[in-house]
Write a structure and sequence with these properties.
Number of helices: 2
Radius of gyration: 18 Å
Largest sheet: 6 strands, antiparallel
Distance between the termini: 54 Å
Helix content: under 10%
Number of strands: 11
Order of helices and strands: EHEEEEEEEEEEH
Strand content: 35-45%
């Protein structure tokens, strides 16, 4: 783990410190509550739906919806592929690395060869990853505000949220 006073630079690690709250960061919750729940989602800064998860002793944060079709990543399984921890989208099984937000896929060298020989490849960064910091048991997220467009950005609009809410089934009135 990190030493006293150090802050993490990526979502793949979190740090504890006694320093003041990081600037431009947003309170997510108490670490003990996040560890217990395993995953939490939060609308951060009124504009970004973020998934914060705890896995194998580390906190990670990323856009909540999968870059491919907007699947709810908070319901995805965490699995290891080629030595890299990934969240697997529950809708279409897309694999996204927790640390970098890379989309991974299994490529086939020669589709005519039997048996097929495959290897893991990266599609590049597809999911926006955010920085997680822990201060005295409080967990904060600093949004990745890079101007570079990342595919998961498309699901971070009010238009998409409105469409998503309208598509959800309405609760039936109680008799």
């Amino acid at each position: 783990m990190s030493s006293e006073g150090e802050t993490s630079q990526t979502s793949s690690s979190s740090s504890s410190s006694s320093s003041p709250t990081p600037s431009a960061s947003h309170f997510i919750g108490k670490k003990e509550d996040i560890v217990k729940a395993g995953r939490v989602t939060k609308l951060v800064n009124g504009c970004r739906d973020v998934l914060v998860l705890y896995h194998q002793g580390q906190l990670h944060a990323m856009d909540m919806r999968c870059y491919h079709s907007g699947g709810a990543l908070q319901y995805g399984d965490i699995e290891e592929f080629n030595g890299r921890m990934c969240i697997v989208c529950p809708w279409h099984k897309y694999k996204i690395t927790l640390a970098e937000g890379e989309g991974l896929y299994q490529a086939v060298d020669d589709p005519t060869a039997k048996p097929l020989r495959t290897h893991w490849c990266s599609k590049g960064v597809k999911q926006r990853i955010h920085k997680v910091t822990e201060v005295n048991g409080d967990v904060f997220v600093t949004l990745n505000n890079s101007s570079e467009t990342i595919e998961s950005d498309v699901y971070q609009t009010e238009k998409y949220r409105t469409v998503l809410l309208k598509a959800q089934p309405k609760p039936k009135p109680k008799k």
